[in-house]
Design the sequence.
């Protein structure tokens, strides 16, 4: 019986944690199995939940969010027979029973940045992040590089919703930020802001501009008004881990980028009319180049700064 | 900064000031009657949830509004019970109500909608849509007046106009009617009202209930006009800012308007780091920007309010027999 | 015989464990003035508040003009034609006179017509009863006497024909009191019924037709005024014969202890309350300061006691006191040998929630003798408190009881014990016997005199002329922030002091104090104001 | 004469209020379709029937003791410190600086240093609102609320821009050096045969919290400063009469209050996570209010109430682990406890007083 531990943002954040939940749900639906789950309410519960699930015989124990890296690292040794998975985290040495799964968000963001720049009529594109943490700057940085690649003169307007975890869940502010960006000329906004993005997409639709969703495919939320979504397949990662079960391979680091289809851009019936063939071709070309290594998208982490935008 | 940008900034200000204004006026009625209320936040939050939930399930934003007002009145009733009938500590009661609203809204939302403490997105008649005032389109090209009218004055949901209309109405009620006279008296010296043969309890309850109605409007505005649905903690401290504005306004209706507009402007500026950079010439840290409304609140309270004399009987339960 | 205007039958009222009224019956004939006397806490105010619907009686019946009447709230009392002027006024301080008058008696939902009507009626009433007040003045800017007029006007405006006045003269000068009595006379002639609560036997004898005496919640007697005497009433009040005079030797004043020169005090509203006064107090004498409440005496005490700032010079034993700076607080004053029994013991002199023993060191709590290392020597303090309480006859002598659980007189004894036992050079003492029964008054007066006889300087402030006259070795009268003059107690009388208290004087020097005022105002401006 | 015996006031009333709150909470649990009895059992099992459960309960209780004492000290001076949350955040910053930048030879010394750091930073964050209240009349309730928001932004700035180790994406400091790691209950109480408190975060800080309870008791009831604080709290006019400076007492009591709130972060930051993370305070500042109220602002009461809330917290975590009850249930229970013990206590007291009065009359 696998277990899934959500980060403090909560299970239904409409993006990251929720994607993990969907993956688990899909596994449950397909196999008829059951899984344990918990939404944390405090930092101290991270270790507690890991231990309690491990003691209860759950295997694997999957955690979402980089904040779990440290607790997983310290707990793993006590439960050698349990497999632990952490999504988004990083640790210097990965214990034998731990598997880390990371995503190349900047690559996916690069592609949607290109799409934004290509469909922008005003020459200004917007980015709205959730809480101001490096991970979100990482998203924004890829996006800016993509946009600049298409149009070096493009103006990028970026805002972070806030500095506390409440920023993941503040659609009011998301909405106002969208309006503010519109008044600065933006006609496309990319929301990498969890639940806050709901407000961004809503306002963009209300005000007649296009938006870009994140993590899950959010194109359907406002059909014809969402340019595309930068998908981050947390659901696949969770689903695969659960499928592998106790037999899963551990002790290493899985990176899911464009090549692995861990990140990408969404094209479906909701946004097909918005994506011209040229745009599609250009993006697919860039995608191939990134996969082949001909094109390098700089990660914000490399030296905590972004070549295309000054956060 | 050009004129249009300024108008857009002010437009945002108006949108963001509206919930503050409604909550501030709500607090004004309550505190003028001698009942301090730091539970504005909680009442707004509960009203936001219930208005969104009912608007969603009935498809009518007006029914949603009623539900929002209803739950806010229930919480007001609890506050009244604690602070009028049982002469409890008003600050603590307000705090408890805010916590209660924070927990209950999510609990109920999860139970009803299973979307992690939010309501589904509202559409169509389940939302307050912006109203275009008469002649807005025709006047649009007239220099200065046109854009001012079109961008700033026209195009808000009905609740914004109600909120602004409430300012003169409140002034009139407080200073021109019998009810207002008694309300102010009961906040200054309840014994004077009591010996004049008027019920202190009834007056205070009615003030607290008016406060409930206005918080209900504020909450409904957040969830069904400013936004299209409820998410947890969506008031995000607005109740407290409204209280600070109330002190800044020295418990007067017109001042309350200016104070909430000022705080609205702070919040609007937070969204426009580009403008700040343009005006002051340096890039401001995001964290500083986020904390700006709160810092300015402290600065204003410390520096400019001077001696804001609250209603003299404020915060104290009326005790006849010890 | 007509039905009585008021008839109360078997009224009882308890406040928690305190039985304030026990089975009280009383009847008042229309067109008469009925006096009620009794010691503090006897239950007079409670009884009348029940009649006015402010409190609800636990038991008993009320008849108005012969009809049994339920008075659940003041609305009902007003409807029954009853008006009441409370001991503590029930006015909204930052409302105008007019607004206060119409509060609760408005004509309709809108204020404008009500205000207009009240303005007309008011000028009418003012003329008829000599009750002039500016209808647009804010209450907080009116003198106490004028505030009382507003209260009376409120009742008349509501067309009360039964008027209850609870200790109306406590805040008035003798002349103002006389004027009030003329008004009451006038109302009686018109057929109105008046109930007058007072402690002052003189007033009872002067104006009432009948008088009731209350003691410890019970009605002990009702008599015709013409058939009784002050001595008899005093005995009914206290339950034993009372010695109304204080025995004391004449003073033998020594060196000057306190010198005050040109003292001015501005309160927090920016009003000049003490307008340049000079006085001295010598060792072994009591200087009494007489005056109607609110004429600057309280502020004088506050500055001397160190909890308000002042301007001017004050010297203790020849050394200058700091009036505004770091050393102007109560601690520094105590260090200089000044002890202070404040006017309001419940709000200032005591912490009501503290035990008696904690209160016996209040203000002196930093004294090293009360410390043991970094902790307080609670055991030692308690033992000392026990001894002090016994010496001062505090009842019950239990140091661990909270101050709020002692009666007013015993609370005052705790404060006195604390301040007198410090053996100060100068004792400031305000309203030493306010709210204290006659037995305790005797004891307190003895303590003050014996402190004087030990050669200490005493500055006594009291609104009770009798007390001033019987205790003081010298009397200064304050009016409107000035000292109107000094008298020796054996060379003056209540009448002369009463005139001084009202600001009437024959001495030209003090008469043109207005000029002095202006000078000080100018000086204050130069100093940068308040 | 008192209307009611003292014991009724301090024991009976909180107890009845608590029972009322519990009953309402049970109704809430019923309403969301779960069984209150099962829920309660699960909470007791998870929080009190295993040593590790106790290890969590006491860990949370440690936090609540600090914040509860902080609120209680301010209450004694009649101030309502809603800013415990922000003060604790700043305290965490203090701990982080002390632990990261000073090479400590031994944890005991580091603990002393970190306590000072936490207390100083927490006090700093409380002294500004206190000063503004005393000198400028800015209402401390509003300013401390604002300071909570400002603290969050400040902490974020430090964690994202200053203290975050390179390449880490977590807005958190690096892990503190080995020498600053505090002994946990497991280290202290396990024997060779049995491991006690396995994995639980309770650590030596618990004893510091208990010591703080004792010290605060001495401070409030046995020192001249405590005497002045209480006097000021009961009556400002009387305090002025006695020469007690309102400014001094306002500032000092808030400094103590802020220092206590700040020290909470030793437990979370140094004791548990061994690094400073963004939301290590987790609302403990607000729970401190409930704890102080329940404990009637008495350190012993605070101690008991903190353990009660620790139990609620740990029990609530167990509920979240094994059932579908959302975590907000615990918030609701807390709110109900605050409402009944803090704001509606007269609802219990008034009838109770009548009963006692009737009994006394019966005796007489
Ligand atoms: N509101 C109240 N709550 C509790 N006890 C009260 C209240 N009012 C009066 N008492 C108590 O009732 C008793 C009677 O008080 P009351 O005010 O009627 O006395 P009084 O005769 O008017 O005295 P005074 O001459 O001081 O005005 C006193 O023991 C007093 O402490
Ligand atoms: N408000 C009150 N609350 C509780 N108890 C009170 C209150 N007022 C008075 N008491 C109690 O009632 C008793 C009588 O108080 P009261 O002030 O009426 O005494 P008194 O007869 O006026 O005596 P004294 O002349 O010494 O002032 C006191 O022992 C006191 O404990
Ligand atoms: Mg009285
Ligand atoms: Mg008395």
Sequence:
């Amino acid at each position: 019986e696998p277990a899934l531990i959500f980060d403090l943002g909560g299970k239904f954040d409409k993006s990251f944690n929720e994607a993990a939940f969907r993956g688990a749900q899909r596994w449950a639906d397909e196999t008829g199995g059951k899984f344990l789950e918990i939404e944390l309410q405090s930092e101290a519960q991270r270790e507690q939940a890991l231990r309690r699930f491990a003691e209860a015989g759950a295997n694997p124990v999957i955690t979402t969010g980089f904040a779990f890296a440290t607790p997983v690292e310290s707990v793993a040794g006590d439960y050698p027979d349990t497999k632990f998975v952490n999504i988004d985290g990083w640790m210097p040495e990965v214990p034998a029973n731990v598997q880390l799964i990371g995503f190349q968000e900047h690559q996916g963001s690069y592609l949607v940045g290109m799409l934004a720049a290509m469909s922008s009529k005003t020459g200004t594109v917007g980015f709205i992040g959730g809480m101001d943490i490096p991970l979100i700057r990482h998203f924004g940085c890829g996006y800016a590089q993509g946009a600049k690649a298409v149009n070096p003169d493009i103006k990028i307007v970026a805002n972070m919703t806030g500095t506390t975890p409440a920023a993941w869940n503040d659609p009011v502010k998301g909405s106002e930020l969208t309006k503010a960006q519109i008044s600065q000329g933006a006609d496309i906004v990319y929301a990498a802001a969890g639940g806050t993005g709901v407000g961004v997409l809503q306002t963009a639709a209300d005000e007649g501009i296009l938006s870009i969703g994140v993590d899950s495919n959010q194109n359907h939320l406002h059909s014809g008004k969402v340019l595309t979504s930068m998908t981050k397949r947390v659901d696949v990662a969770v689903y695969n881990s659960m499928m592998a079960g106790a037999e899963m391979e551990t002790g290493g680091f899985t990176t899911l980028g464009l090549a692995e289809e861990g990140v990408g851009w969404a094209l479906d019936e909701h946004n097909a009319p918005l994506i011209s063939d040229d745009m599609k071709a250009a993006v697919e070309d860039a995608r191939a180049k990134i996969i082949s290594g001909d094109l390098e998208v700089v990660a914000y982490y490399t030296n905590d700064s972004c070549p295309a935008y000054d956060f | 900064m050009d004129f249009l940008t300024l108008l857009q900034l002010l437009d945002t200000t108006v949108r963001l000031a509206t919930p503050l204004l409604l909550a501030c006026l709500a607090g004004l009625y309550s505190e003028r009657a001698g009942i301090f209320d730091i539970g504005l936040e909680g009442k707004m939050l509960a009203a936001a949830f219930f208005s969104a939930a009912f608007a969603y399930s009935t498809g009518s934003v007006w029914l949603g509004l009623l539900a929002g007002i209803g739950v806010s009145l229930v919480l007001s009733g609890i506050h009244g019970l604690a602070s009028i009938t049982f002469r409890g500590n008003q600050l603590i009661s307000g705090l408890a109500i805010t916590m209660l609203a924070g927990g209950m809204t999510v609990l109920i939302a999860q139970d009803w909608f299973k979307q992690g403490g939010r309501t589904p997105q509202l559409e169509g008649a389940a939302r307050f849509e912006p109203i275009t005032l008469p002649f807005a389109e025709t006047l649009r090209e007239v220099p200065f007046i046109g854009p001012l009218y079109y961008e700033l004055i026209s195009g808000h949901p009905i609740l914004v106009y109600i909120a602004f209309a409430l300012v003169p109405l409140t002034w009139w009620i407080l200073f021109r009617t019998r009810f207002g006279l008694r309300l102010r008296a009961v906040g200054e010296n309840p014994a004077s009202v009591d010996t004049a043969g008027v019920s202190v309890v009834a007056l205070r309850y009615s003030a607290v209930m008016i406060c409930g109605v206005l918080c209900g409007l504020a909450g409904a505005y957040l969830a069904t006009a400013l936004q299209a649905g409820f998410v947890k903690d969506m008031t995000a401290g607005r109740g407290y800012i409204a209280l600070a504005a109330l002190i800044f306004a020295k418990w007067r209706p017109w001042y309350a308007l200016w104070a909430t507009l000022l705080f609205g402007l702070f919040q609007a500026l937070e969204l426009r780091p580009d403008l700040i950079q343009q005006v002051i010439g340096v890039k401001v840290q995001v964290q500083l920007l986020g904390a700006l409304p709160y810092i300015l609140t402290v600065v204003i309270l410390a520096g400019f309010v001077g001696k804001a004399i609250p209603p003299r009987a404020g915060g104290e339960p009326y005790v006849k027999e010890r | 015989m007509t039905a009585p205007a008021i008839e109360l039958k078997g009224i009882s009222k308890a406040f928690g464990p305190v039985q304030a009224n026990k089975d009280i019956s009383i009847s008042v004939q229309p067109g008469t003035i009925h006096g009620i006397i009794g010691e503090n806490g006897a239950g007079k105010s409670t009884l009348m508040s029940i009649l006015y619907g402010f409190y609800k009686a636990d038991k008993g019946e009320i008849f108005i003009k012969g009809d049994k009447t339920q008075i659940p709230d003041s609305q009902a009392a007003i409807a029954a034609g009853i008006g009441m002027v409370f001991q503590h006024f029930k006015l909204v301080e930052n409302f105008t006179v007019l607004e206060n008058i119409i509060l609760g008696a408005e004509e309709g939902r809108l204020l404008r017509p009500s205000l207009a009507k009240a303005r007309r009626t008011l000028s009418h009433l003012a003329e008829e009863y000599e009750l002039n007040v500016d209808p647009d003045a804010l209450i907080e800017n009116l003198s106490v006497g004028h505030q009382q007029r507003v209260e009376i006007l409120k009742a008349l405006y509501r067309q009360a024909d039964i008027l209850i006045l609870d200790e109306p003269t406590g805040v008035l000068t003798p002349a103002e009191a006389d004027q009030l009595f003329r008004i009451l006379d006038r109302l009686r002639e018109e057929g109105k019924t008046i109930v007058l609560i007072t402690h002052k036997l003189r007033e009872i004898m002067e104006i009432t037709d009948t008088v009731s005496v209350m003691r410890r919640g019970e009605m002990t007697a009702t008599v015709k005024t013409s058939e009784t005497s002050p001595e008899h009433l005093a005995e009914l009040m206290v339950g034993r014969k009372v010695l109304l005079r204080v025995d004391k030797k004449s003073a033998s004043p020594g060196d000057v202890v306190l010198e005050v020169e040109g003292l001015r005090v501005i309160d927090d509203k920016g009003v000049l309350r003490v307008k340049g006064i000079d006085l001295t107090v010598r060792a072994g004498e009591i200087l009494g300061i007489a005056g109607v409440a609110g004429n600057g005496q309280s502020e004088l005490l506050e500055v001397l006691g160190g909890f308000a700032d002042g301007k001017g010079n004050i010297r203790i034993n020849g050394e200058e006191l700091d009036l505004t700076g770091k050393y102007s607080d109560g601690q520094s004053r105590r260090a200089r040998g000044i002890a202070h029994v404040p006017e309001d013991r419940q709000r200032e002199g005591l912490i009501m929630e503290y035990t008696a023993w904690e209160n016996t060191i209040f203000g002196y709590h930093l004294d090293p003798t009360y410390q043991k290392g970094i902790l307080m020597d609670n055991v030692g303090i308690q033992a000392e408190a026990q001894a002090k309480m016994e010496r001062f006859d505090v009842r019950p002598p239990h140091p661990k009881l909270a101050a709020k659980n002692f009666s007013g007189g015993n609370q005052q004894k705790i404060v006195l014990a604390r301040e007198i036992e410090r053996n100060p050079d100068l004792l400031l003492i305000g309203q030493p016997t306010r709210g204290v029964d006659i037995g305790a008054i005797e004891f307190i007066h003895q303590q003050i005199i014996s402190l004087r006889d030990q050669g200490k300087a005493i500055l006594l402030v009291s609104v009770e002329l009798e007390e001033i006259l019987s205790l003081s070795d010298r009397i200064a009268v304050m009016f409107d922030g000035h000292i109107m003059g000094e008298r020796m107690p054996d060379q003056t009388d209540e009448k002369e002091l009463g005139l001084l208290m009202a600001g009437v004087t024959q001495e030209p020097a003090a008469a043109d104090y207005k000029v002095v005022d202006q000078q000080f105002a100018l000086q204050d401006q130069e100093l940068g104001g308040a | 004469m008192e209307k009611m015996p003292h014991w009724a006031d301090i024991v009976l009333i909180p107890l009845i209020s608590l029972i009322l709150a519990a009953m309402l909470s049970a109704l809430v649990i019923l309403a969301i379709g779960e069984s209150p009895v099962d829920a309660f059992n699960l909470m007791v099992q998870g929080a009190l029937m295993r040593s590790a459960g106790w290890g969590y309960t006491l860990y949370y209780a440690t936090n609540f003791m600090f914040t509860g004492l902080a609120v209680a000290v301010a209450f004694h001076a009649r101030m309502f410190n809603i800013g415990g949350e922000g003060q604790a955040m700043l305290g965490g910053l203090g701990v982080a600086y002390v632990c990261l930048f000073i090479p400590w030879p031994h944890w005991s010394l580091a603990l002393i240093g970190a306590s000072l750091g936490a207390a100083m930073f927490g006090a700093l964050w409380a002294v500004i609102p206190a000063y503004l209240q005393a000198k400028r009349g800015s209402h401390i309730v509003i300013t401390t609320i604002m300071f909570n928001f400002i603290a969050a932004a400040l902490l974020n700035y430090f964690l994202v821009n200053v203290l975050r180790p390179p390449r880490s994406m977590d807005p958190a400091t690096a892990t503190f050096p080995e020498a600053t790691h505090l002994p946990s209950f497991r280290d202290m109480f396990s024997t060779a045969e049995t491991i006690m408190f396995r994995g639980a975060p309770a650590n030596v800080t618990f004893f510091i919290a208990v010591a703080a309870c004792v010290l605060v008791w001495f401070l409030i009831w046995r020192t001249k400063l405590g005497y002045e604080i209480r006097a000021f709290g009961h009556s400002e006019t009387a305090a002025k009469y006695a020469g007690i400076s309102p400014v001094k007492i306002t500032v000092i009591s808030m400094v103590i209050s802020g220092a206590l709130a700040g020290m909470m972060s030793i437990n979370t930051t140094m004791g548990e996570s061994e690094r400073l993370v963004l939301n290590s305070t987790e609302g403990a500042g607000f729970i401190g209010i409930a704890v102080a109220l329940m404990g009637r602002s008495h350190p012993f009461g605070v101690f008991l109430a903190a353990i009660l809330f620790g139990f609620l917290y740990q029990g609530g975590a167990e509920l979240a682990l094994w059932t579908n009850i959302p975590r907000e249930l615990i918030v609701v229970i807390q709110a109900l406890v605050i409402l009944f013990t803090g704001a509606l206590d007269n609802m219990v007291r008034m009838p109770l007083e009548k009963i006692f009065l009737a009994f006394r009359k019966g005796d007489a």
